[in-house]
Amino acid sequence: MSIRFQVSFFCQNCGSKFRRHRWGTGKHKKYVWQCINRQLNGVESCSTKPVKEKELEQAFLRAMNKVIGLKEAFMKTLIQNINKRINNVEQEYSMEQIDSRLTELQQELMSLVRLNAKTGLDTRVVDKEYSTLAAEIELMAAVFVFKTGVDVREIL
Ligand SMILES: [Zn+2]
To answer: So where are the chain's domains?
Structure first.
């Protein structure tokens, strides 16, 4: 595998970028990654030693596996929560209520988009508002699909 084109590594000690170097030639050729600060300004400026590419790759793979594991756990919780909320909403609202709430949310979303286009509001505020609305629309749409078997995105 080749990691050198996809990621940048930063020195934990001084924050500089790492750069890839070739050591040796022919059969003895190997690659190491070195802190640029240390390389340019000497050993006194940074104490981080060069790292063999093989070791870096292994550390990178370990970190990736950890991230993937966390993501899977997160997705599982998310799906459980959505299922739970779908059940709640389904019991709380009638089909008509869900339908009219969806229309309402849709209009809110549209006016938010229009307002933003007109005034150029603080994007952080709009983004937050937008994702709150979008999340409720998603939930309502999911219940709608669940109850009717109609994909609401085809209607909206
Ligand atoms: Zn460094």
So the answer is: 1-69, 93-155
